């Protein structure tokens, strides 16, 4: 059976067995339980995570105590606080597990080494980075131009399984609305 990370990488680049063994040697495997953090606001993030199994959320809490969800992460998605990871500064977000999760992670140093030694992986992450920027741009545009109902419908269309895995209050926090507003959309 093909390793799930290899399948994921080979959506972008091809790898020989030897190359994949070299790549996977730069990763560590961890399991986290529901509600466990992988990133806490204020810490310097040294890891980028790839989700094998589970569901996570990236979020911050404002000065009034309100939670704002920036991103969900599910199988085959990458997640970290990218500003902290790239600049090695304190994280502005927290990331925790909504479900029991199984993850692979690569340290900042290992990612640097891997991309320096294997240009195919540099191309892989460049492509993933571009896809991530497109997603972020689309999310910002949706927040700026779409109604709450349109944002809800778009999320439901793009990620229907998310609605079966994530409590409604988290969907509301992602959409930037109250739980009551979200309930009115469902009625």
Automatic annotation (TrEMBL):
SUPFAM superfamilies: cAMP-binding domain-like. InterPro entries: cNMP-bd_dom, cNMP-bd_dom_sf, RmlC-like_jellyroll. It comes from the Bacteria. This is Crp/Fnr family transcriptional regulator. Pfam families: cNMP_binding (PF00027). Residues 33-114 form the Cyclic nucleotide-binding domain.
């Amino acid at each position: 059976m093909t390793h799930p990370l290899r399948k994921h990488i080979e959506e972008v680049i091809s790898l020989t067995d030897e190359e994949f063994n070299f790549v996977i040697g730069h990763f560590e495997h961890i399991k986290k339980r529901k509600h466990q953090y992988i990133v806490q606001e204020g810490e310097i993030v040294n890891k980028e995570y790839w989700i094998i199994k589970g569901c996570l959320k990236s979020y911050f809490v404002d000065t009034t105590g309100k939670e704002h969800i920036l991103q969900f992460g599910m199988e085959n998605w990458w997640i970290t606080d990218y500003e902290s990871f790239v600049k090695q500064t304190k994280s502005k977000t927290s990331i925790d597990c909504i479900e029991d999760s199984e993850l692979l992670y690569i340290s900042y140093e290992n990612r640097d080494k891997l991309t320096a030694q294997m240009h195919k992986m540099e191309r892989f992450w460049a492509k993933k980075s571009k896809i991530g920027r497109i997603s972020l741009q689309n999310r910002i545009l949706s927040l700026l131009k779409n109604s709450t109902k349109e944002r809800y419908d778009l999320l439901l269309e793009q990620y229907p399984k998310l609605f079966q895995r994530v409590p409604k209050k988290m969907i509301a926090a992602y959409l930037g609305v109250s739980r009551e507003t979200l309930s009115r959309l469902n009625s």
